[in-house]
User: What shape does this take?
Amino acid sequence: MPRPVVVIDSAEHKGYTFERFSNWFSGTTRKRLAMGDYSLLGMENEVAIERKTVSDLVKSIIHERAGFIEKCEKLSTFRKKCLVIEGTLSEVKTPYEETSAHPNAVLGSLLAAQERWEIPIHFLDNFLLAEEFVASMLSKYHAYRWLETNGYRRCLIDGDI
Assistant: This one.
């Protein structure tokens, strides 16, 4: 199975490099993605992963709500998609220094978006864990798609679960 190329949105400046995962990917490329911060070359219309820090998330939901809703609507059209939050649920539920927004309003909006647009949401403790999670998701998306496209049935083997 060929190794995929990760596409990093050109607007993503402090994101993941995937250098630790050179055994999973043949490389990375930067270009403007229609949606999300990360995808796979040749699968840009099928795979989208959106990354947010907790402060980005709060800003998006509270101060840029229309844009957040629009992004969720677009993200929902992708076959494989998710929202990765660099931070814990506890951090989302802790009062914020930069705004008077109530944490319940942020979490409630996030859960409503998950329910309405069926976008999986993943909380990862820190940058490195989030990068590894995104790398793993992209690797799995590619592997399963390659198997399906090449006439193999997706299967799990010992050690997959």
